[in-house]
Specification:
heterodimer, A: five-stranded mixed sheet, two-stranded parallel ribbon, 7 strands
């Protein structure tokens, strides 16, 4: 009599822990403070959660990034008046432009990530003029083309350089540089 | 074409010897001219203000009171190549900086000297392995007299290099200054079929430049049409890229 009860008991217990494991994986990150504010004002963004130091990250489509940037700068709640950095990221399939913006007034910052549409991203120079050289650098090293930038030239590499050196698939095969081979 | 240079040199030596004989027959001894000339020259080496990165800080430290480069007569850092005898390449040279460095070197008057300061200018340093933008050693662009290893070297090392350079200068003779000028022409150690030509060089000049293509008879190659002359400042042309590629593949085993 004791044997069948022992066999039945683990069978009954097995299905019990399964349902709670499935539910948290399906949910994406919750929209943070700025994500909610943007959604209230009719600007839908992709919440990406906080980064390692707790700065809220949002993903924005290239055609909406100018509106979002203008809102973040002009809104009396956010007052994002200081563009800290523009970075380029190479994900192999696509390139990404990442903006870190800070508010001198509220001491809060936000990270805006824009997936480049076939390497094209609108320039944020009309909103934050500081983007000028940052975007030129990202163009120089990653080949991200910032539409609307008034002077998109190479910044760090020589003017006649071929290719974008920080891309993952970059291979230096410029015949003019044979003399500098290892 | 090399005969032209040789003829020039022998003629110059003849003039010197006849002049020396003439003076000596009149009771004037010329034997100490070299000594005097080199003494004056080696004790007033004016360096050019050329610092591209952290080695520049050590160079400044060398010129400051603790180490005091003026003990060797080199405290006058000139901000123009036209007044300087020495270029201390203090820092990494990138592809963007390379044409500027070659141009500055070419603007310096003879006799001119180069001290390669720091690992970056000796071999490329920590950028030597996989770099897309750094020149692997400044001797690929200009001839170097003294190499100073270190990252960055201490001021004592730079002073030691300066003293070595002084020793070298004291051994030189005023007679073979043409030969020295040859040695101090900017040169690029290129493979077969590649030669750097500065702007405005003539065909005679080319032979001197061609010396750098080691183990190859450049004039012969030029006759056979294996080599193409490219004019312009710091422009390079390769004619045997496939050969080099094969050699590199063999070397790396790819």
């Amino acid at each position: 009599m004791s044997e069948p009860t022992n066999e039945n008991a683990p069978e009954n217990k097995e299905p019990a822990p399964n349902p709670p494991q499935e539910t948290p994986e399906e949910k994406g990150p919750e929209p943070g403070e700025f994500g909610k504010l943007l959604a209230e004002n009719g600007l839908t963004v992709d919440p990406l959660g906080p980064d390692a130091v707790g700065v809220e990250m949002i993903g924005v489509a290239p055609d909406k990034v100018l509106d979002v940037a203008k809102f973040l700068r002009d809104s009396q709640i956010t007052k994002m008046d200081f563009l800290m950095s523009v970075s380029g990221v190479d994900h192999k399939e696509y390139r990404e432009s990442v903006y870190h913006v800070y508010s001198v007034d509220t001491h809060k910052s936000i990270c805006i990530k824009v997936k480049a549409d076939n390497d094209h991203v609108p320039s944020l120079m009309p909103v934050w003029p500081a983007a000028d050289w940052h975007e030129r650098e990202a163009f120089d090293l990653f080949g991200i083309i910032y539409d609307g930038h008034p002077d998109l030239r190479r910044l760090l590499m020589p003017v006649d350089w071929i290719g974008y050196p920080l891309r993952k698939d970059y291979k230096q095969d410029d015949p003019r540089l044979v003399w500098n081979e290892r | 074409m090399s005969n032209v240079a040789e003829a020039d040199q022998t003629q110059e030596n003849k003039i010197f010897t006849t002049l020396q004989n003439l003076l000596e027959s009149n009771g004037i001894i010329c034997s100490s001219v070299d000594l005097l000339y080199n003494w004056a020259r080696s004790n007033s080496i004016w360096p050019m203000t050329f610092a591209t990165s952290c080695c520049g800080i050590e160079m400044m430290s060398t010129s400051a009171s603790n180490f005091d480069i003026s003990r060797f007569g080199s405290e006058v850092f000139r901000a123009t190549p036209r007044q300087s005898d020495l270029v201390i390449t203090a820092g990494t040279i990138t592809h963007k900086m390379a044409p500027a460095l070659v141009r500055l070197y070419e603007q310096m008057p003879e006799p001119k000297y180069v001290i390669a300061m720091g690992a970056c200018t000796v071999t490329g340093g920590m950028y030597e392995d996989r770099t897309y933008s750094v020149v692997r050693g400044v001797d690929r662009l200009i001839p170097v007299d003294v190499y100073v290893p270190g990252c960055p070297p201490r001021p004592e090392a730079l002073l030691d290099a300066l003293m070595l350079l002084q020793k070298k200068m004291r051994k030189e003779s005023i007679k073979d200054r043409r030969q020295r000028a040859e040695l101090h022409k900017p040169k690029v150690r290129l493979g077969p079929g590649e030669v750097l030509l500065p702007l405005g060089t003539t065909d005679e000049e080319f032979v001197r430049w061609g010396v750098q293509a080691e183990g190859y008879n450049v004039t012969e190659m030029q006759k056979n049409g294996e080599l193409e002359l490219v004019r312009g400042n710091c422009k390079f042309r390769h004619e045997r890229a496939d050969e080099r590629e094969r050699a590199r593949k063999q070397r790396t085993g790819a």
